[in-house]
Every structure is written in C-alpha cells, then in structure tokens.
C-alpha cells in the first residue's frame, strides 16, 4: 500500500487540519456540493470556532475553506448550531458563549459559492462573506442559557404534512449543564423566535425522565411501510462519562412529541456522538422524494465534551484529534431507522491511498459466527468485527492502544439478512450490518501504516455466501477483486440485501 504522511489520519472522513474537532456544527447540501461546518479548537486549550469544509460530488474528498466564525466581542466560544438555506442565502445559527452564559446567534452567507472561490493561506482568517446578524434567542423570565440549536422548516399545516412548509422550527437546550431542558421554538422568519415549551413525550419514550439530554436534532422521513411522514428526534444522553445517541420516531405537535418508536440507539460502536442532520438548498432534492431519505453525520468520539484530547494518540503524534463519520443515508422502515453508507464509497476507497473495505453476505445460524480480523502492517490484529447471528461485536481489546477496552455490542434480529460492510480509513472503523439495521463506529489505531488485510474466520454452521475486499489501486492488483465485480455484487439479484448504496 502507498506510503502516507499520516498513519492515523483518515482520507475519506473529515478531520481538522490541526487541533481538536469537537463536533459537526451544521451540514448543507447545495446541489452536488456538500458543506460541512464544524466546531473545532486550533489548540487543545483554545476557544472553539467554526471551520468549513466542502466536497464536490461524492462526500469523500474534502477541501478546506476559510473559517466562518470565531469568538469576538467578549465571546469565549462559538459552539454547535445549525445551517439552513433561507431565501437566496444561508443562515448559520450558532451558540455564542460569554462569561454571562450562552445564547443563540445568527450569521448569514448571502453568496455560498463565493466562499469556495479563494482560500487564505492564513488558517485563522475568517471568510469575508459571513456577516453576523446578532443574537436571536436569549434569556427570558422562564428560560436561560440557550444553546445547541437545530433549525428546520416548519409545517404550513401541521395536520396535513403534504401541504408543505412555512416558517421555521427550532429545538434547543436550556438550563444548567448538569440538568438541561430541551425546548421547542418557532419563528415566522427565522429572526423572531417564540418558545413553545419544553419538549415532552406522549406515550412510552424509553426515557426515564432523569437523563441528561443534549444536542437535539430532528429529521423527517416517510416510512417505507405505511408511507406516512414522521418526525425523528435525535438526542444524545450523557451518562456515566460516555455519550449515548439515539432516536425516537413519532410526530411533533407544538412541543409535544407523540411517540411511535421509543428511544433506540443510533450507533452501538465505541465512538459515536452528537449526530447532525443535513439541510438542503432549493432544488437539491425533488419535492416528491424529499422525505425518502436523510443524511446524518456523527462525531467519532464516545465521550463527547468530557473527553480529554491530550489522551489521543493522533494529537500527540500528528497534531489532530477526532473525526466525523462518513454521511449515513437514513431511511425509515416500519418505525426503524436504517443507516447505510453513501453512494460512491467503493470507488472512493479504490481511488484512495490507504482506505479499505470488506463486504460479506452470510448465513449465520444461532450459535455460529463470522469474524473479520483487521490486520495491521506488521501482521497483528488491530480489531475484530464479529457477526454472531443475533449480535454484532467490535473487539479492540487486543490492541495495545486500546488496552482493556470493552466490547462494543449491537443487538440484531433473526429476521434480518446476515450481511456486513466494514470501512477502515486511517484510525476510523465503521460497520454496517443486516442491510443497515445496525451501524457501529469505533476508533482503532493501526501500527506501522494502514490496514494490510482482512482475515475471515467462521465458527459453527455459518458460511459466507459471497464476499469481496476492496483496497486502493496502488495497494496490489494480485488477488484483489475488480471494482466492477464488487459493484455488481451490490446490485445483484437480491437488491434488498445490498450492503452499500
């Protein structure tokens, strides 16, 4: 495999050039151009600001644009928010933190393509196309310390979702960090916001009411089974020093969410937190297919804001920490959120220098398993991914960089297809199983360079019906599948069992 300047930095995932990436802040798809605005700290102890990266076409080759926000005028931090298309421009809602607390501010980019035309050699120069509007949500008599806004279009007629959109809806967090409250706001113009009330749940939510809920997001999808449009509220629970991100399916009316699917984890890997939705500019998605699928990105860090970046090997050796997952194509099927990798990923792996992927369609009866060991450049096992009929496991405990790490375990259902797709890219591992029923993201450090091989083993009566591995073109042509054969595998006579879109 080709030599790379960075052993641990992924190629197909977003990382900060230097410093600590805290989270994706907002994502916008403008035609074929992906814009990811992310919160990061140039130094581990500096205040967060917003970076901007973009990709033309497939969301794998990312270019860096000038930063769009940095603390100013008494601010100490610019934290996460949301990005939406509004009229002829783009609105950036962000959390402004000062010594007095947090509030939600608005900035605007009138000409989004212009932000890509020139990039300064100074990494701290702010894009001149970004104009700060000011605070739009601040303390009220009842609610204090607003932060982490998610903004999407509101419904024109809440009782008839086919009527389209009017105005804006916001989910945000208020109150102290140790006991926050998620609230719902609305606005006719995106400027004047009114609090509808705290987010409440009607029906069984799967939450006990005592959790610390942060980073609320909402997407809308049409269920492929009953063809109704549902709201999917995504939240992250901070519990016992780790982040657990999950979703609830139902309908949001005012500030009450009528639950049809209770809290279910979005990702079961070691390192996934604070997923973000993707908004669109007009014309990017056909109206008739607007709710067929959504795109979500997550931070590959299982600890979130409690993490100590100084413990990251990538920061110590290469000057950066954390990555954002590849975008996940989310669909709703019978009240369950399915997640699959985006189109073009196999070609991106083939064109990369160090990424790799493995796909397998298996038969795995109860008591049997198919395990795939991820082998580093020295021939040692860096991690093992195992499909055990009713559970998917990532084990990295044998890796000296992850000593005594517990297994990450995801439940599977016996009715699903036994399939796996494994993406390895630098120190990131993402696994999708059973047609997208389960997704898992984990950081795994490989010694000596990129992954060198996938070693498959079988127990019991399991069998691998078909499998393929794809490596970069520069790796070796000996014994590796042709990319066209791999693509054909994913479009064969059983399209519902496709592992990669």
Question: Care to give the gist of this entry?
Answer:
The protein is mainly beta and 501 residues long. The chain has 2 domains: 19-337, Tachylectin-2, Chain A; 355-497, Jelly Rolls (Sandwich). Helix content is 4%, strand content 49%.
Describe how the helices and strands are arranged.
Elements: E1 19-30, E2 33-41, E3 49-56, E4 63-69, E5 77-86, E6 89-98, E7 101-109, E8 130-137, E9 147-155, E10 165-174, E11 181-187, E12 194-198, E13 200-202, E14 212-222, E15 229-239, E16 242-253, E17 256-265, E18 273-280, E19 294-299, H1 313-318, E20 320-321, E21 328-333, E22 336-340, H2 345-351, E23 356-363, E24 369-375, E25 381-387, E26 391-395, E27 408-411, E28 418-425, E29 428-433, E30 438-443, E31 453-459, E32 463-470, H3 483-490
Parallel strand pairs: 1-18, 1-20, 13-17
Antiparallel strand pairs: 1-2, 2-3, 3-4, 5-6, 6-7, 7-8, 9-10, 10-11, 11-12, 14-15, 15-16, 16-17, 18-19, 19-21, 21-22, 23-28, 23-32, 24-25, 24-31, 25-26, 26-27, 28-29, 29-30
Task: Write a structural description.
The protein is mainly beta and 501 residues long. It folds into two domains: 319 residues, Glycosyl hydrolase domain, family 43 (Tachylectin-2, Chain A); 143 residues, Jelly Rolls (Sandwich). The chain has three helices and 32 strands. 47% of the residues are buried.
Keywords:
501 residues; mainly beta; 2 domains; nine-stranded mixed beta sheet; five-stranded mixed beta sheet; 32 strands; 49% strand; globular
How many beta-strand runs? 32
Report the CATH superfamily of the largest domain. Answer: Glycosyl hydrolase domain, family 43
The separation of the N and C termini measures: 26 Å
CATH A-level architecture of the largest domain: 5 Propeller
Which sheet architecture does the biggest sheet show?
9 strands, mixed
Into which percentage range does the β-strand content fall?
over 45%
Work out the helicity level: under 10%
Q: Tell me the CATH topology of the largest domain.
A: Tachylectin-2, Chain A
Overall number of structural domains = 2
- Tally the helices: 3
Structural class: mainly beta
Provide the residue-averaged pLDDT: 92
Q: Mind telling me the CATH class of the largest domain?
A: Mainly Beta
Low-confidence stretches: 477-501
Estimate the global geometry from the Cα principal axes.
globular
Radius of gyration: 22 Å
């Amino acid at each position: 495999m080709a030599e790379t300047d960075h052993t641990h930095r992924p190629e197909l995932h977003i990382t900060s050039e230097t410093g600590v990436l805290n989270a994706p802040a907002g994502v916008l798809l403008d035609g074929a151009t992906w814009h990811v605005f992310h919160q990061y700290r140039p130094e581990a102890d500096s205040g967060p600001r917003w970076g901007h990266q973009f990709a033309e076409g497939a969301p794998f080759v990312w270019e860096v644009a000038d930063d769009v926000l940095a603390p100013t005028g008494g601010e100490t931090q610019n934290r996460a928010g949301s990005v939406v298309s509004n009229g002829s421009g783009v609105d950036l809602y962000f959390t402004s933190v000062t010594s007095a607390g947090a509030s939600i501010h608005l900035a605007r980019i009138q000409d989004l393509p212009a932000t890509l035309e020139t990039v300064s050699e100074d990494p701290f120069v702010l894009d001149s196309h970004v104009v700060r509007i000011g605070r739009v949500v601040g303390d009220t008599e009842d609610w204090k310390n607003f932060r982490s806004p998610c903004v999407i279009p509101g419904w024109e007629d809440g009782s008839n979702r086919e009527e389209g959109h009017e105005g804006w809806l916001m989910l945000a967090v208020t109150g102290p960090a140790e006991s926050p409250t998620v609230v719902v706001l609305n606005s006719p113009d995106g400027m004047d916001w009114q609090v509808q009330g705290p987010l409440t749940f009607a029906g069984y939510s799967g939450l006990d009411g005592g959790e610390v809920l942060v980073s609320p997001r909402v997407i809308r999808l049409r269920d492929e089974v009953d063809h109704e449009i549902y709201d999917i509220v995504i939240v992250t629970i901070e519990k016992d020093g780790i982040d657990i991100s999950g979703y609830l399916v139902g309908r949001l009316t005012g500030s009450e969410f009528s639950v049809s699917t209770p809290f279910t984890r979005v990702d079961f890997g070691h390192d996934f937190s604070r997923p973000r939705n993707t908004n669109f500019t007009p014309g990017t998605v056909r109206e008739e297919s607007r709710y067929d699928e959504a795109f979500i990105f997550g931070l590959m860090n299982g600890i979130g804001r409690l993490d100590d970046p100084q413990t990251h090997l990538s920061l110590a050796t290469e000057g950066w920490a954390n990555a954002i997952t590849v975008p996940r194509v989310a669909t709703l099927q019978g009240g369950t959120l399915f997640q699959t990798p985006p189109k073009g990923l196999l070609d991106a792996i083939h064109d990369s220098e160090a990424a790799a992927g493995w796909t397998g369609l298996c038969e795995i009866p109860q008591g049997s398993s198919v395990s795939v060991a991820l082998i580093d450049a020295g021939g040692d096992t860096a991690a093992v991914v195992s499909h055990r009929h009713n559970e998917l496991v990532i084990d990295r405990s044998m890796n000296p960089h992850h000593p005594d790490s517990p297994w990450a375990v995801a439940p599977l259902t016996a009715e699903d297809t036994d399939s796996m797709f494994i993406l390895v890219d630098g120190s990131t591992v993402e696994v999708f199983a059973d047609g997208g029923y389960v997704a898992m993201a984990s950081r795994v450090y490989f010694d000596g360079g990129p992954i060198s091989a996938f070693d498959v083993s079988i127990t019991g009566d399991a069998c691998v019906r078909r499998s393929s591995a794809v490596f970069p073109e520069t790796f070796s042509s000996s014994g590796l599948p042709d990319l066209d054969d791999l693509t054909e595998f994913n479009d064969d006579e059983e399209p519902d069992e496709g592992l990669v879109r």
